[in-house]
Amino acid sequence: MKFMLMMQGTLADFESMCAWSMVELKAHIEFMKGFARDLAAAGELVLAEGLDMPANARVVSGKGGPPVVTDGPFAESKEFLAGFWIVDVATPERAIEIAAAASAAPGPGGRPLGIPIEMRQVMSGPPEFA
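RE: above sequence
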């Protein structure tokens, strides 16, 4: 079973990281790198990526002509996708365990951040379309 685990963030979350000490920032980054290594070693990691700042996001739509490009992920939204993991696990419960571990990434003072992680199963089409 594949699941996409999506790390939610806010602009305030990103901006607050500017006030973290280098030690705190390094601990957070090392946690994320180690977390990905552990999932890869367990054979559960399909893909993991952090995403650029929302100010650099663009929304693109098209109807066959030139694409329409607008700024920002969603101007009225307070939250945005900060990063994601795609994991391939045996049960939904295992995906929940992984999401909870990611949510507890360290922040200032090493305290778990409690980052919201949205979990969605990756769906596939019927076998004849695979």
